[in-house]
Every structure is written in structure tokens, then in C-alpha cells.
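TICKET #2291
ISSUE: user wants both folds in one file
ATTACHMENT 1:
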Amino acid sequence: MRYLFRITGDDELPETIEIQLKKGVLTLCVLALLNRSDSYAYEIASTLSKAIDMGEGTIYPLMRRMQSDGQVETYLVESASGPSRKYYRLTDAGRRALETQTAEWRAFVVAVEGVLNADAAAGAAAPVATTEERGAEQ
């Protein structure tokens, strides 16, 4: 498995990477949460908001997509404090997606750690050029 990265030189790259990483693992996180127990969208959104600082608005379209993809199914549960809640549960396809995405995520983490560790080892042997030094070289 290969992962390609594009470096843009943009000063806001760390924020962009963080946002992209969150978007990339959001489905995996939802699948993992639903593998533990059935849940409703607001509860999933609240959990992910606390865990990875993901906005609530991103969950609802994702849940609809996961339902149309056959990864989750819904059922209604009466609520004593208001209208019935739509609960989500994993389907067999959702469990397979969780297994696949978990394996892909772990392989990705190992690949990134390999790159970071190689850079750390190289960094111990040679100093890293500053932005100004790199600019002067060009």
C-alpha cells in the first residue's frame, strides 16, 4: 500500500492537514462507535466533537450517506422527553467496512510513523535547514 503526499508550501498546511485527517477518519470513527452500541446522530456528534473536535453539522450528511451505502440501518425509539429518536446500527456491510478501514488506517499510521522515524533519525545526524536557509539555496 502506498500513500502519496503533496506539499504545497502553504503556511496554513498544519491546519489543512488536521482538517483533512479528521474528514478522512470520520466514517471510521462513526463505524467504531456504532460497533460498540447503537446510537442516534446527536449522541455520535457529541462524542466526536469531544474526541476529535469535529463539528456536529458534518455528522448528519455522513449518516445519510452511510445509510444509502448500506453500512447502517435505522430504527425509532420512543423518547420520554420529546419526539422519537432515530437510532443507527451497523449492518453486516458496515462491520466489513469497519474491518477494512481499520486495517487501512493502521497500515497508514505505520507508513507515516516510518517516514517520521526516518526523518527523526536523519535529523539527529544532520541539522534541518530553516525556511530562510532553504530559500537562500534556491
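ATTACHMENT 2:
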Amino acid sequence: MNKAVDPALMQAAEQLGAATGNQKLDAYWMPFTANRQFKKSPRLFVKAAGMHYWTDEGRQILDGVAGLWCVNAGHARPRIVQAIQDQAAEMDFAPPFQMAHPKAFELADKVSKLTPAGLNKVFFTNSGSESVETALKMALAYHRVRGEGTRTRLIGRERGYHGVNFGGISVGGMVANRKQFGTMLAGVDHLRHTHDPARNAFSIGQPEHGAELAEDLERMVALHDASTIAAVIVEPVAGSTGVLVPPKGYLNKLREICDKHGILLIFDEVITGFGRTGNPFASQTFGVTPDMIVMAKGLTNGSVPMGAVAVKQHIHDAFMNGPEHLIEFMHGYTYSAHPLACAAGLGTLATYEDEGLLTRASQMADYFAQAVHSLRGEPNVIDIRNIGLVGGVELAPLPGEPAKRAFNIFLDCYERGVLLRTTGDTVALSPPLIIERGQIDQLVDTLRGSIRRNS
């Protein structure tokens, strides 16, 4: 599935590297980055194609994390590139408030055909963070327009990641993402996380133990009363915290409790959406349909920023009342359904369809699982988790230096031609869905060597 790279690409990377080598780095405050360490030893990409990046030094790097969980179809795919170029020449911007353009409706229709049955209304944003904020606001407003305005409480989960805006970090549960920013939103509570290495370490696929943790929601209903709870938001697979796969029956139990108490269930599929678990969405993989799905990343293959929220018909219809000339939902963004993003989305979905990528992870899952779990028994490996084409390798931390062992491995693998991602002391793998078996071997074997060198 990977075409041979034009030799001229390497020359172009070297030329671009020479151009960037002398540029100043001081002005750019980098996101989620150890800025001081980076600027002492920069890691710059100047080109990408298929499964690979090229550095400013001309080195080829195997992309083991799909850019940042988003480049599911691989880099610089021709149909996506062409769609963006054509749209930029045809129309660069169209106002999304009280106006629209055809591709917005076309993309929404195509997305609605991929989501689980019933989630057939699509609202566009520009990122996963914005999609989360949108879904939370929809949940609160939905109950209000139905006459249940007392439902204002939002329930997240410990170790959850839902972006970086105030709503997202409030329902999120990653301590480092929250502790600098004050008290956040009021009226938020959290379920316990599902990470249970004592019972589930080295599970292949879904762990056997932990479905009962969903009963935490019943405890919160008893504490707060169902009449005050608007929604529960969880990631089907908690990616950013270290690839926590849901225990068997856990999501089903959450769905059951939400239905019992009239609580909306929101799945954050920013990472799992668009083929990562072997289906278009993880909700289909696990057989549980939420009331809303939050998405981004793979929607445009990472080529143009875009996000979306898919909701059930009855949620949308609850807003469609009152005088027709009035706005039903007072929310949106200047760049909602941006023409370039919609063009990129259409090109991306066409690429997924042409190459069968939305289900390819199910074909590669067994080989990927065997490869990743072959790291069991390597020095300091204390757990391995996987589903579809995503895996997490958890390492024992260096005494008194949390996250440093994994970061050292990240740097070491980069020097040896492989890009990984770390979160705490877990190494995360989420390669583009076009990955071949030999590249899985390269990815895992490079990681194996680095684990040994950093033991």
C-alpha cells in the first residue's frame, strides 16, 4: 500500500533542512513540549509521504503515531492534497453563520453514513477540544429546551482526556492538564478510571475485569440525584493517558445506567474515530451506541484542522422549535465547516473508502497484537495494552524521575528512525492504517532495542 518514494524527496528534505537550520527558534512557544530541551536539540520535520517523515538532516523517520493520532491514511495522499488545492483556488472561505457552501452538507451526509445508526446530525468544529465543548453545551442546552434545566452536572472520568479548553479539562481527569488552571467548571464529577494492572496486566484486547466500575455512575446518581445530571463523557479507549482499553461489558453498563436515569452518554472518539479500532468508530467495535460522538483528527487525515459532533435525531429536533427566523442553538465558530477543511474531509473519506482503511485495523490487529505483546518480559515493561491498531507499553518509572524513562526511549527511537509518543511512562503506538507487517516489525523491534538500552 506504500509507493516507492521519489529519490528527489530526500534531496528536497536536505535543501529544506539547510533553509531551516539557521532559523530562530525563540519566538515560538511550543504546545505540550519541553521547550527548553527541544530548543537545545531541535527535532524538525520538513517532508512527509506515506508512512514516513523526513528531517531537516535528510533522515527518514517511520511514523509510529500517525502524526498525532490523526494521519490515519498516511501522509500526503494525492486525493486529499488535490482536494485542498482545488478548493483553495475555487473558494477560500464562506461564512458559516446564516450562509453555507455545498461541501459542508456533502461532508455531513457522508459522516452521518459512517456513524452508528441514529447519529445522523453533524455539527462541525475545528478541533477535538472544540468538539468536546460543543457536545457539553449541546447536552446542557438539550435538557433546558426540554424543560429539565436542573440537569447541569457533567460527569467525566479520572485519567480521561477531552482536550484543553475549560470544559474539556474540567470533565477530563489527567492531573497535569488540570492543576495549573484553578477550579475550572463547577458541577463536575468523575468516575473512577479502569486501569487495573493487578487484575488485567498484559490483556490482549479488552480486559476481563472491571465492568463493575461503571456502577460508579449509580453512586453519583445517589449522591447528586439524576435530575441534576446532564451527561457522562468518556473515551471508549482512553488514548492520551496511556491506551486504556475498556473492560468487557463496561461501556454496555454505562449505556444501561444512562438510559435508566435519562442521562446523555457522550463518546469522545477524537482518537478512536475513523478506523483506529477496526470500524469507522469504536462505538461500533464495542457494540455500544452513545447519544453523541465527538470526533476530529482522522476526519481530515490531519491535513486541515477540523472536528465534528454527531448527535441523535431527537437531540437535534428538541432545538427545532419557536419562530423559524430565530437561531435555535447559539453556538458555532468562524471556521465551522471551512471550505478547505470540508474538501480535505471529502478527500479523506474517499481515500478511506477506496482503500478499505476504516476496517483495515481489524485485518492487521492480530499481527500488531502479537508484535506489541512480544515486548512482555523486556526490562521494566510492566503492562501492555492494545486494541485494533493502537497499543500502549507501560514502563516502570525511574526512581524519583517520573516520565523520564519513556522520554529517553522516545528520543532514542527518534535517533534510530522511528517516531513514537509517550504519556507519563507509557509508550503509545498508533501508526497510520496503511502500515504493513514489515513496518510493524521495524516499529516494535526499534522500541525493543531502546527499552533494553534504557534499562
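RESOLUTION: both attachments delivered.
EXTRA DETAIL ON ATTACHMENT 2: The chain has 17 helices and 15 strands.
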